């Protein structure tokens, strides 16, 4: 394991209960992974263990924390064994986020310091944890919608599964093949845009799908396949949209910054409805030459009939440099796809571009369908690059997202 958290600098101001032999500090270099874990890992920690790790990244950067293996006793409000996390790096944990139970999660800090403290009870049966931290470049814009500030820790979660039980040039998916797929609809059931579930309260879509739209007219459809019948699956449900927030820099004239967060009441998860994985660990990936899958209820051809059933099509991601030959205005936070005779179309907007990790088979949303010239034309389609907005998503929702 390279770049093991081999911390040598002592911490002078810590919580009194911290073991003085288990206090660490690390200055993070950009692009390097550092690991935090109980000193007995992969064995369990001992009852009464208490350790603290403080990390600081370069000025103008954020810290990405990914905890992939957490196995701890679960308690109400995590009053027993827990991991305490503060984003500022302060040793005062009164404003910390608490985590316990089994699962994994990821987050990005608001500032360039982070404190992680392991606290266990004297009667603890033991547990273990393994986390990684990385310094990321800052790219944020201040937002103003207070409704998105409430934290919602998910102590045990899964993401990105696909039920293998097939848009222009595409094919029909299987019923509930993509549990994270959702749709924005009107009060009378008319399909507007695609969306993707990222947690039990939030989905992401394209900003142009909600631009200048009265929130009271929007509803979210999940777990459906043929949205005109309501009989092909027993897992479809409709939720009233409570609020939405567009990226502050969204430009409706050229669709740059075309991303929005939509908030609903708690979505009931099951084997056929659940969140997609967010690509935190792929922040630096361009996905050039990778195959992604566009999913939606959009038109089968330009200005043609919309599909009642959910359809999918596999597309190739092309480099931004190549795409700019046809789309000179393209910016780094956009992603282009092009496969001859295949494309997303009108009505697919806001829906996902899914990428599947070839090893874990987990699905990640790496793009949001945004705009194109016609459908299936010789010009590449433009999509919103999700990795460019991960810190904003995490900050505005206050969620701890699943890590995969």
Number of strands: 22
How would you sum up the global shape? globular
Mean pLDDT: 80
Stretches where pLDDT falls below 50 for ≥5 residues?
A: 1-16, 89-94, 139-156, 165-169, 300-304
Distance from first to last alpha carbon: 18 Å
Radius of gyration: 22 Å
CATH topology of the largest domain: Jelly Rolls
Give me the strand/helix succession.
EEEEEEEEEEEEEEEEEEHEEEEH
How many separate domains make up the residues? Answer: 3
* CATH architecture designation of the largest domain: Sandwich
In this structure, how is the largest beta sheet organized?
Answer: 6 strands, antiparallel, barrel
Measured by DSSP, the beta-strand proportion falls in 25-35%
User: Can you give the helix content as a percent range?
Assistant: under 10%
Number of helices: 2
CATH class label of the largest domain: Mainly Beta
Q: Structural class of the secondary elements?
A: mainly beta
Per CATH, the superfamily of the largest domain is Spermadhesin, CUB domain
